[in-house]
Structure formats: C-alpha cells, structure tokens
C-alpha cells in the first residue's frame, strides 16, 4: 500500500486482499484444501480475478472489492467453482463476513477495507480449517494522506 502507484482510493487495492492471504499461506507452508501447494500461479490467478473488480464497486453495487478479494482467496484455496458445493459456500461465506466488517458506517477507506478483509479471512481460516497465520494490526500510516480519514472512529487508526 506504500507503493506510489497505490493511491488513497483506487481499484488496485482489490488485488491486495487475495494476494496477501495466499502469499501468507504459501510463506507458512500451508497446503490448499486438496493438499497441494499454493503456487505462484495461484497468487497470479487471484490477482487476475480480483483486478476485474472496478473502482467504486463498493458504493455503486454494494460489494467492496477488498471484501470480494477474500472470497477470491478462499475460492482458490478450496478449489471452488460454480459447481462445487462446500468450497463455493466457503468462498461466499468469507465474502459475506468481510463485507459485514467493511459495512461499518464510516467513510470508505480502501486501506481499512483491505486490512479488515485480511484479518477476517485469517480468522475464518482458523475457525474452519484450524490454520493459524499471525496477523496484527499496526497503526495506520495513511491517515494524513486521506482527507476523509475517520481517525479515532476507525478500528485501524
């Protein structure tokens, strides 16, 4: 998020959620639901899928791209397709949970949405698969760049 190409608000944030989740799982030698390794191809596929989510989707269509990215990560992790029952259900459940966290009555913030989605997905992985990947919030370093920052109302401020 510190990279100069990542503005305060923009759709490039949508790829961060699944890319970070799958990279963290891969870096911790966590295998996919079917026992296979998480590959660089999987991470690139997550980026490809989530990069199709346009900016402004959160307000115009009611589904934040960062939250949808959590569903992309779980879809790839479980091998979900439209024809799979349990994996498809899990992908939809985590998307719903992430979107619920993002629906917080605050001004939209892509940075917050990404962090909330990652945290919710890691919580979900612990609950469903007993997979533990450490993640802690750090103080937000973007509040000065965001003139609409909710500051103390924000859970990551």
Mind explaining what this structure looks like?
The protein has 157 residues and is mainly alpha-helical. The protein has one domain. Helix content is 52%, strand content 0%. It has 6 helices and no strands. The chain has helices at 13-27, 40-50, 57-60, 65-78, 86-102, 110-129. α1 (13-27) packs antiparallel against α2 (40-50) and α4 (65-78) runs parallel beside α6 (110-129). The protein starts with 12 loop residues before the first helix and ends in a 28-residue tail after the last helix. 38% of the residues are buried.
Described by strand count, sense and barrel closure, the largest sheet is: none
The helix-strand sequence is: HHHHHH
If helices are DSSP runs of H or I spanning 4 or more residues, what is the number of helices? 6
Mean pLDDT: 94
Record field, number of beta strands: 0
Q: Specify the helix fraction band.
A: 40-55%
Overall geometry comes to globular
The gyration radius over C-alpha positions equals: 15 Å
Structural domain tally: 1
Please state the structural category.
Answer: mainly alpha
* Beta-strand percentage range: under 5%
List low-pLDDT spans.
none
Give the termini distance in whole angstroms.
15 Å
Quaternary structure state of the chains depicted: single chain
């Amino acid at each position: 998020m510190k990279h100069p190409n990542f503005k305060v608000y923009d759709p490039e944030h949508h790829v961060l959620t699944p890319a970070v989740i799958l990279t963290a799982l891969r870096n911790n030698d966590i295998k996919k639901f079917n026992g296979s390794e998480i590959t660089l191809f999987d991470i690139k596929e997550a980026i490809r899928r989530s990069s199709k989510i346009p900016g402004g989707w959160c307000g115009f269509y009611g589904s934040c791209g960062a939250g949808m990215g959590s569903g992309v990560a779980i879809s790839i992790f479980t091998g979900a397709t439209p024809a799979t029952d349990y994996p498809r259900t899990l992908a939809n459940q985590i998307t719903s949970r992430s979107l619920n966290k993002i629906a917080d009555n605050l001004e939209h913030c892509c940075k917050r949405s990404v962090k909330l989605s990652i945290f919710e997905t890691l919580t979900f992985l612990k609950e469903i698969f007993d997979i533990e990947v450490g993640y802690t919030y750090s103080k937000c370093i973007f509040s000065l760049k965001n003139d609409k920052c909710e500051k103390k109302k924000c859970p990551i401020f």
